[in-house]
Design brief:
- 59% of the residues lie in helices and 9% in strands.
- It is α+β, with helices and mostly antiparallel strands and 596 residues long.
- The chain has four domains: 219 residues, no CATH class; 168 residues, no CATH class; 69 residues, no CATH class; 116 residues, no CATH class.
- The strands form three sheets. Strands 3-4-5-6-7 form a five-stranded mixed beta sheet.
- A hairpin with a 5-residue loop joins strand 1 and strand 2.
- It is globular, with a radius of gyration of 30 Å.
- The termini are far apart.
């Protein structure tokens, strides 16, 4: 029977007192794994082998069933034998309802007919929130209190992380052995095993059974898992020293280099938030549960304090970068999620920074406020994820409202507005906003909104309406309407989806009328000529050399500076770069000379 004991951290827990208990829990886990495999096979089968069948024909049913079949068994596998049956039952029911509601919202916000049951964001962030929430509940249930001791949270969460990694590795190794066995049998002319592995009715239940078996095996070898965790934490804690030196050097160099180079990467916010996230993980690896017998060496204690202080400038840089991008281009779903991540980072930075500075005037336990910060931010992360993937703070809804408000306020012109975002990247709320713009009293807005919607829902590419966003130099003649007509799917003009991406200029490139057009992108110059006196077709490219001594990579700037000049009469002219040495760009119609 189940007996109540106390683990090494003083946390009360249900342990397996007898071999029979272990067998019962092991059998329960195998049944859970088998049921999960059967459910996943049923869902998979409804989408395969011809026209979809129920429940795949009903997205509002298929989506919730899919996410519940994937994630609820993981909750049961991790909770059986560790949570009281009543607590496990309540938590499983709550998990089912929340997952189903999130899936329903995720489906309702998507554009009809795109065939995506659930978005990657929901699946990834949903798994994260579920892992955090589960490991807030397990220690609290063991200690019979709303919030457990920090040592219990640390022990449960890091043990579960190691167990999850080992279980996934076990399932992967299991499949590698099966493929090896199938290859051996194939050598002697027996293909039955290879044929079985291709069958979903065999492979899906077998995979879930293998994972459930791994969870059980790692659970009964508690000491082994603790040993692996200890080694992993030791290695990670010393990596903190390396990352602290690198981030410290980066921060020290910023006053001399400025932030321009960082903004030019186009991913500054992601880079600094990734560095902050890595610091947070490594700080916790060094701090562990805060007990005196786990106190790291003095050099690591210094690194923990320095890293905790460095979190604040990193997060502030992320907020600065986000504010610049949002101020220039408005909100997008990615930027809203980045803001959410930065808010979590700010909570960590504030708590960790206070814990580090507190050691200068307090002689208490070192970095102890870090414990309260970790618990509070864990709750905050779950709340933010639930808000982002529910109607409360739906990134698509907030982004569409902001972008349309910018258009109506005149912050962005009708020509520069991103109608494609409403049509392709913001789901039903975007297409609804596009419908409202079609009814706009501004004829330019209405025309471009209609073109974007027609392009989205056209079943025939030949009749699709696509308006390339191509600009000309100030003072130059407008481009012919034929050049701005809907191009073919493989035409370079298809890449001109946003204002500023493409420039075009009319030039005489063969000494004969009419004028040709040069389409200039970042790393490509395409020559267009008239076909049959009307339509423009691409004739050849002028590739941009990239080795030493060649022109800079952005060909648009060369055009703006007046450095692109047609030379060499006869046939299609080469395009020389004025003042840039002897670099010459040749069309594909002729042999391309070495660029250096």
């Amino acid at each position: 029977m189940m007996t109540e004991t106390t683990d090494q951290h003083g946390a009360g827990r249900d342990t397996l007192g007898q071999t029979g208990d272990r067998r019962t829990i092991g059998l329960a886990r195998l049944v859970i794994g088998l049921v999960q495999g059967v459910l996943l096979y049923g869902l998979f089968q409804s989408t395969e082998g011809g026209p979809p069948t129920w429940p795949a024909t009903e997205p509002a049913v298929f989506g919730p069933l899919l996410i519940v079949s994937l994630y609820l068994p993981l909750v049961l596998l991790a909770g059986v034998g560790r949570l009281r049956l009543l607590t496990l039952g309540i938590w499983a029911a709550v998990t089912t309802v929340i997952l189903a509601l999130l899936a329903l919202h995720d489906i309702s916000r998507q554009t009809a007919g795109l065939g995506t049951p659930l978005t990657f964001g929901l699946m990834a962030f949903g798994a994260t929130a579920l892992f955090i929430a589960h490991h807030l509940i397990v220690p609290a249930d063991r200690e019979r209190r709303l919030f457990a001791t920090y040592a219990a949270y640390f022990d449960v969460a890091w043990m579960a992380g190691v167990q999850l990694a080992l279980s996934v590795a076990f399932a992967g190794a299991f499949w590698l052995l099966l493929f090896l066995g199938a290859a051996l049998f194939n050598i002697i002319g027996l293909s039955f095993l290879g044929d079985l592995l291709k069958e979903a009715w065999f492979s899906l239940p077998l995979t879930s059974l293998a994972f459930a078996t791994a969870v059980q095996l790692t659970d009964v070898r508690d000491g082994l898992i603790r040993g692996v965790r200890t080694v992993a934490l030791m290695l990670l804690s010393w990596l903190l020293l390396v990352l602290t030196v690198l981030v410290g050097g980066f921060m020290a160099a910023l006053p001399f280099t400025g932030l321009d180079g960082l903004w030019e990467t186009g991913s500054a916010t992601a880079l600094v938030l990734a560095a902050a996230g890595a610091l947070i993980i490594l700080i916790n690896a060094a701090y562990q549960d805060g007990r005196a017998d786990n106190l790291p060496p003095s050099v690591l204690r210094i690194a923990v304090r320095v890293a905790s202080v460095l979190l604040t400038p990193l997060v502030l840089i992320a907020f600065w970068g986000l504010s610049l991008r949002i101020g220039q281009h408005g909100l997008t779903p990615d930027r809203i999620i980045a803001v959410a991540c930065a808010l979590v980072g700010l909570a960590y930075a504030g708590g960790y920074g206070f814990a580090a500075l507190r050691t200068f005037w307090s002689k208490g336990d070192w970095m102890q406020p870090l414990e309260r910060t970790n618990i509070a931010t864990a709750v905050l992360q779950v709340a933010i994820i639930l808000a982002l993937f529910s109607p409360l703070a739906d990134p698509a809804r907030l982004s569409v409202a902001d972008q349309v408000a910018r258009l109506q306020a005149g912050k962005v012109t009708p020509q520069a507005f991103d109608y494609a975002f409403l049509a392709f990247n913001s789901g039903r709320v975007g297409t609804a906003a596009l419908d409202r713009l079609i009814a706009s009293p501004d004829p330019e807005v209405a025309k471009r909104a209609r073109a974007a919607k027609d392009g989205l829902f056209s079943d025939d590419p030949a009749t699709e309406t696509f308006v390339p966003a191509i600009e000309t130099l100030p003072g130059e003649a407008a481009l012919p309407d034929a050049f701005l007509a809907t191009p073919a799917l493989d035409d370079p003009r298809r890449a001109c989806t946003l204002p500023g991406l493409c420039l075009a200029t009319q030039r005489d490139m063969n000494g004969q009328p009419p004028l040709e057009i040069l389409l200039v992108q970042v790393d490509r110059i395409t020559l267009f000529a008239r076909e049959d006196g009307d339509a423009f077709v691409p004739v050849g490219d002028y590739p941009i050399p990239t080795c030493a001594g060649s022109p800079p990579g952005d060909a648009r700037q060369l055009l703006r500076d007046g450095d692109l000049v047609p030379v060499a009469p006869g046939g299609w002219k080469d395009l020389a770069v004025e003042g840039r040495g002897s670099s010459t760009l040749s069309t594909n119609a002729f042999p391309i000379p070495p660029p250096c």
